[in-house]
From TrEMBL:
Highest taxon in the source lineage: Eukaryota
Signal peptide coordinates: 1-26
Organism: Salix koriyanagi
Cellular component GO terms, alphabetical: plant-type cell wall
Start and end residues of each Bulb-type lectin domain: 32-163
UniProt entry keywords in alphabetical sequence: Disulfide bond, Glycoprotein, Signal
Lineage of the organism: Eukaryota, Viridiplantae, Streptophyta, Embryophyta, Tracheophyta
Record-linked PROSITE patterns: BULB_LECTIN (PS50927)
Name this protein carries in UniProt: Bulb-type lectin domain-containing protein
Length: 281
């Protein structure tokens, strides 16, 4: 009798060992989700900010697309572009990985099985990385709001581009105490390094750039800065869905909000807020 009484127990043990092995095996990026892009080939045809040349990479979620761009020869930035091909309006750079530390021709962007996202020069020099190796990352995704995320198996964000702004905040993006607490202007249209202007969030826990419908019908939208103190500073009230907006600290030190109306083909961008309407601060 004794051996048969033991059987269910040993079955349970082997089942739990099996599920442990299955779990351990799942905590790498599935091979089909890994990628390696090489910065090579023809440049794109459409008009983009800073008069840049660019090469499009696969990751996208309209109107956002990952690209390499350069404004000076052989100095490339990995960046997220906003705007659609259908619209003939300028496409804009709303996030970038490696300001001030460009990569050259044949640089690579690699998302490996270990879950690290790495931008490296052709000779292997690492210019930028998310430092997320072996942290349970299984998935890379560009979200509909332009946040690029590395997710674990439960969907939690192990890394998100929203935590690393340079001069631009998309809707839903924050400046945080203990995180990226400032925006720094670009040096010039041509040169992508830190410029002289910065905006800090002060001693606040966070300040978030937001867009919300004024009423349920959504005839018009608030564009606002939401402070951790509970204060909500309304910057503009466009009479259309303004979810596709960003706040930018410009080369000239001015702060503007650009809103993209994806129902419009020509002139889809509208400057919906300007901090110093007279020009330079
Ligand atoms: C990039 O790599 C290709 C293929 O290996 C090579 O033919 C080309 O010369 C390289 N370009 C540069 C600028 O190094
Ligand atoms: C507003 O625009 C966003 C972004 O295009 C879209 O996801 C959302 O569904 C729109 N809202 C409404 C109410 O149409």
């Amino acid at each position: 009798m004794a051996p048969s009484q033991l059987r269910p127990v040993s079955l349970m043990v082997s089942l739990s060992i099996f599920s442990f092995i299955a779990l351990a095996a799942a905590v790498t990026v599935p091979l089909s989700s890994t990628f390696k892009y090489v910065n090579e080939g023809e440049f794109g045809d459409y008009i983009v900010e800073y008069g840049a040349n660019y090469r499009v990479l696969d990751p996208f979620n309209s109107p956002f697309q990952l690209c390499f761009y350069n404004t000076t020869p052989n100095e490339f930035t990995l960046a997220l572009r906003m705007g659609t091909v259908r619209s003939t309006s300028t496409m804009r750079w709303v996030w970038e990985a490696n300001r001030g530390n460009p990569v050259g021709e044949n640089a690579t962007l690699t998302f490996g099985e270990d879950g690290n996202l790495v931008l490296a020069d052709a000779d292997g020099r690492i210019a930028w990385q998310t430092s997320t190796a072996n942290k349970g990352v299984v998935h890379f995704q560009v979200q509909p709001n332009g946040n690029m995320v590395l997710q674990d198996i439960k969907g939690y964000f192990i890394w998100q581009s929203f935590d690393y702004p340079t001069d631009t905040l998309l809707v839903g993006q924050s400046l945080r105490a203990g995180g990226a607490a400032r925006l720094v202007s670009r040096f010039s249209e041509k040169q992508n390094s830190n410029g002289p202007f910065s905006v800090k969030n002060g001693r606040l826990q966070y300040v978030t750039f937001q867009s919300e419908p004024v009423t349920e019908e959504g005839f018009s939208y608030y564009l606002s800065l939401e402070f951790s103190t509970g204060v909500n500073a309304i910057l503009a009230t466009p009479k259309y869905n303004s979810t596709l907006s960003f706040l930018r600290l410009g080369v000239d030190g001015n702060v503007k909000v650009y809103t993209y109306n994806d129902k419009v083909d020509i002139g889809a961008w509208e400057v919906t807020f300007t901090l110093f309407p007279g020009g330079k601060p």
